[in-house]
Amino acid sequence: MAFKSGFVTIIGRPNVGKSTLLNLLTGEKIAIISNKPQTTRHTIRTILTTEEYQIIFVDTPGIHKPKTKLGEFMIQEALGTFDGVDLILYMVDARDKKIGPGDSMIIGELKKAGVPTILLINKIDMVEKSLLLPLIAQYSEAYDFDEIIPISALDPKTKELVLNVVKEKLPEGEMYYPEDMLTDQQERVLAQELIREKLLHLLDDEVPHGIGVEVIRFKEKEDKNIIEIDANIYCEKESHKGIIIGKEGKMLKRVGTLARQDMERLFGSKVFLQLWVKVKEDWRNSDFMLNELGYKKE
Asked: Is residue 215 a contact partner of residue 273, using CB atoms and an 8 Å limit?
């Protein structure tokens, strides 16, 4: 049986469950997950290698109408992944009654791209089965999908279901990456994203999207099996700084503890993490700050 390999991008509006699906398919916590929209800011490549295939998954920021320069960057990142991929997994929410403007825009981009696409209707555990049929009919009419699969990204059975279909559609080819490699993201970026995930989970709605994280030091001490990480957390208002630090520094300490635990599991090493909070007004519209934090315009 010939070996198969290829690039698969996962797209959809914010909060449809892309990162949850990615983590289910790969079995590794690489993509950050939050119940708040626009969690993923970078396109994250996660590599899944078996004896039969190598799939390089590209997890993208949710496609939304941008309000800041950071938002514009995220949309360019997401749509930019259509070039050079072998397959698109397009996720929508089963709770939608009809195709909304956001999904109509995505379908327009799919028509331009002409890449084989599988539609995944996620969160079917949250709706009556009878409500799925009209939604499936609408999407079938809107675009000629290679397959339409209703799923729940929280159900372990979904993993085999989706991977079997993906494997079928992949071209024959060689490995692109070494078989033991999990992601092409630098560890520094993964550390940055894990800190941001904890902030998104623990803070109130008005603060998180005004937060940026910059890892200013990442030093591996191999003789001691320890990684020392220093990071700045940027927020847009002085009042936000107080919320992030919390009473007697408790919030910041919690963020640090949870992020460190995930890093140790992911990096397989002891981690010493130090966090600082700084105010930079309107950083999401500053080209300099976006560059500093790794959201570069090519």
From this structure: no
Beta bridge partners of 234: 212, 278
Gyration radius (Cα) of the chain, Å: 20
Q: Per the domain annotation, does 148 fall within a domain?
A: yes
pTM value > 0.85 = no
Can you read off the two tokens belonging to residue 102? 């956001």
Q: Residue range 158-164: average pLDDT?
A: 95
Question: 168: part of which helix (H) or strand (E)?
Answer: helix 157-169
Mark which of 116, 138, 169 sits at the end of a domain: 169
Domain range holding 234? 187-292
24 pLDDT higher than 70: yes
For residue 65, pLDDT beyond 80: no
Across 237-246, average pLDDT: 87
Backbone angles phi, psi at 95, to 5 degrees: -80, -10
Looking at per-residue pLDDT, the higher value among 120 and 111 belongs to 120
CB contact burial 110-133 (16+ within 10 A = b; e otherwise): beebebebbbbbbbbeebeeeeee
CATH classification of the domain holding 28: 3.40.50.300
Distance CA 58, CA 45 (A): 5
Let me know if 225 is exposed, middle or buried by CB neighbors in 10 A (0-12, 13-18, 19+): exposed
